[in-house]
Amino acid sequence: MLDSLPDTLNESQLDALRAELGKNKEGIKVQLRQWQHRKFITYSNQTELYIKTEEYATSCLPARA
């Protein structure tokens, strides 16, 4: 799901994507907390945006044989 979002995102963008996928609005905060705990995103208090991390970018690279 995070792959479908831009590198910087806000809650309303996640809400819109979750709605497209038929998921409820109540799960947004839980989803964001999970991604933060997994170090996939960080939150900027200054911009009020979530930013995908380098750890997330490297974890999404295809495995090399």
| Residue share in β-strands | 15-25%
Mean of pLDDT? 92
The total of helices stands at 3
- Helix proportion range: 40-55%
Order of helices and strands: EHHEEH
Strand order of the largest sheet: 1-3-2
Major β-sheet profile: 3 strands, antiparallel
Compute the number of strand runs. Answer: 3
Outline, from the CA principal axes? globular
Search tags:
65 residues; alpha+beta; 3 helices; globular
How does this structure look, described?
The chain is α+β, with helices and mostly antiparallel strands. Helix content is 40%, strand content 15%. Strands 1-3-2 form a three-stranded antiparallel sheet. It is globular and about 30 Å long.
Task: Kindly summarize this structure in a few lines.
Helices cover 40% and strands 15% of the residues. The protein has 65 residues and is of the alpha+beta class. The longest helix is centred in the first third of the chain and has 10 residues, at 11-20.
